[in-house]
Design brief:
Layout: H1 12-15, E1 20-25, E2 31-36, H2 40-65, H3 71-78, H4 83-90, H5 94-100, H6 103-106, H7 111-121, H8 125-130
Antiparallel strand pairs: 1-2
């Protein structure tokens, strides 16, 4: 596409004043770079992704509130992590981290283990222990 045709549609990136680097051709037909604020299909996909993430966070909050999962699940969703990623951050096996997602198991964790989660989530141990989905 030509440099002057690089899309400049409004997107979530505009609010953050972020531009995306794209390749385009200049008036001589040579490849060059251009900044784009977004384009409609990408904006729609990004908005859908953000909505899905927010729905997952809200569901995790409710699940913590109803004592179905531990706060680890909520903070994992807030930080856009999955079990494998979180296991890497805390240096434990994935099956063990999943087990810590159970409220009954979570309540028995010592501060040394909770500190690993707190560090991964950039919160205090007390914030982690005392989060009840409220």
């Amino acid at each position: 596409m030509k440099k002057e045709d690089v899309p400049q549609d409004k997107s979530n990136l505009c609010a953050l004043n972020i531009k995306e680097l794209c390749y385009a051709t200049d008036e001589n037909g040579n490849y060059t770079t251009a900044l784009s604020s977004g384009w409609e299909p990408k904006t729609i996909a990004l908005e859908n992704s953000i909505l899905e993430i927010n729905e997952r966070i809200e569901q995790a909050r409710k699940d913590v509130q109803n004592d179905l999962v531990s706060p680890i699940v909520y903070f994992m969703e807030v930080h856009k992590m999955d079990w494998i990623t979180l296991a890497g951050y805390v240096g434990m096996w994935t099956w063990r981290v999943k087990r810590h997602g159970k409220p009954k198991v979570f309540r028995k964790l010592n501060d040394k283990i909770l500190a690993k989660y707190a560090e991964a989530f950039e919160i205090t141990i007390q914030e982690l222990k005392n989060y009840h989905g409220n």
